[in-house]
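Handout, page 2. Input:
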Amino acid sequence: MQNLLLQIYYAHRAYEELPQTFPMVVELLDKEIVASSIYSTTSIEGTALESEEAVAEVLELSPEEIKTVNQRASANMKEAYDYARRESQKPDFRLTEKYIKKIHELVTKDIPHCYNVPGFYRDNLKLDVPTKVGNERTGGVYRPPKTLQDIQTLMTALVQWMDSEETKKESPLIIAPIVHFYFELIHPFWDGNGRVGRVLEAMILKAGGYLHAPFRMANYYRNHIEQYFSLFNQCRRALEKKDPNAHYPFVKFFLDGFLGAVEETKDRVIGFVRTMASRDYSLQLLRTKDINPRQYTILLQLLSQGPISKKELELQPWYTALYHRRTSRTRLRDLNKLLSKNLLSEKDGKLAVFHMP
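Output:
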């Protein structure tokens, strides 16, 4: 496990300063990661929209334009993420029950449910309704604590453990998945526990200085959903047998995923920076008349669109308009010049912008 912690540390170090140097990268990353993460975390709960693109569109809507429950679920997650990001960056931040209840309120507000009250713990005895978690396919059905008193006692103990001097000595990379695991075991709310648990995990990581990657973990959990649920049950059964390291397999599972999330974030940061550098270089070439405006447009479009075949390129409306009343010889000459200057590369029949190294 120590080796994984070191790998994550050095992978994060490779990009943690770049977003401060390139503020635009932060904005681009945030939009991409938030939409992707919301799609994943709502998919796990069965309230997802049809695609990440659909989520991104909903996040631009005003509250009055939200019409469906699934749209509301995505919009709520964005509010919860914004709140978690903002609060976790405060110098005196410490995770309290007040924060946990506020996140639950944001996640579940205006979503119909028979029993759930946003921001309040459940009390099964009061309503005489059972709570069951899981199914046989993922390792069995679990019945979490059912009385409000027990839930309050366990949540208070969890928060006190997080705030203890001994726990503060631990890496947030260890604390975050442990909190996630025990929070889900307590299952304190009628609805939204999974979504809240994943936000809490991200909140702890962001407070610990980890940029962007925390919200990517929802993608990892969705992509490994069977393992995600079965490990909860495996660790729960080990805990019932008084195993002091019962949570170890889930922590290891988390670290494997977070290393991938950090590596993916690093690659995206570097990709964004290289794209920005390529755009600046293309503009410089236009100003010095080393390329013409048509060639400059081609470079900008392919930087946005990615690799494309010549046949696909010729079908693009912007490309057709660009060469309206121009001969095929002109089109060929423009492309060949971009290729000869290594501004475009051609591989496997696809044209792509040659990024600045």
